[in-house]
TrEMBL record:
<keyword id="KW-0808">Transferase</keyword>
<dbReference type="InterPro" id="IPR029063">
    <property type="entry name" value="SAM-dependent_MTases_sf"/>
</dbReference>
<dbReference type="GO" id="GO:0008168">
    <property type="term" value="F:methyltransferase activity"/>
</dbReference>
<feature type="domain" description="Methyltransferase type 11">
    <location>
        <begin position="87"/>
        <end position="129"/>
    </location>
</feature>
<keyword id="KW-0489">Methyltransferase</keyword>
<protein>
    <submittedName>
        <fullName>Methyltransferase domain-containing protein</fullName>
    </submittedName>
</protein>
<dbReference type="InterPro" id="IPR013216">
    <property type="entry name" value="Methyltransf_11"/>
</dbReference>
<dbReference type="GO" id="GO:0032259">
    <property type="term" value="P:methylation"/>
</dbReference>
<dbReference type="Pfam" id="PF08241">
    <property type="entry name" value="Methyltransf_11"/>
</dbReference>
Amino acid sequence: MRTDILDIHDFYRSPLGGVARDFIVNRIAAAWGKGTGLKIAGFGYTNPYLEALDEATARFALAPGGQGVIRWPHGKANAACLVREYEWPIADASLDRVLIVHGLEEAPAPQRLMREVWRVLKDDGRVIIVASHRRGLWSVIDTTPFAAGRPYLRRRLEGLLRDSILRPTAWDSALFFPPVSGKLLVRVAKTWERAGAMLWPGLGGVVMVEAEKDMLTPVGLASRAGVRAIRPAIAAPQPLRHQSRRDNHT
């Protein structure tokens, strides 16, 4: 069961949500700028973040059916729609970038979601995932959408990406200040964020990763004249394996 769209929308209309959005947008802008010339889709609840990528050729906000959707952008032709978790109405290899915020933590099958990302990205496409960090306060204080679903550690997120033939290229963190509303906290959040990034970089409220589509990867071993050699081939997602009981509880 996903968090209701109205709860997420109301969070981003609050002072705390606005500050959180600004810190995360700064990290996204460092990687993608304003999205100049790019075709970008966001999955989860990405409306406030897509706003900053205003030089993109095209922007789409894809909302999972269990969450709900809000018309976006305001005052322009609607570019937001409900989609099935793993069946997006987007052609193969047609997007330059995919942004995921509030989309991974509550996904019933994260690997299937990542394979859908792989499918829609161009050969040189990239994805940025913003996920709640298991060691951060934002995943344990139940006052924001970042406390919903399954938080992630870097190693687990990296494994998920590699299993989906996506290669991590850059890591970052954000939201080092506690998720507590209040005028004073919001005013000092910038100072707190700067100090947290320097003093305890592993304790951010969200972990962020940029990954690229991996088109060439070893997919098997060939034996010839008694010699084992890796035979590279164009990558394609492999059939899902049943998770072990241990995996289901990590």
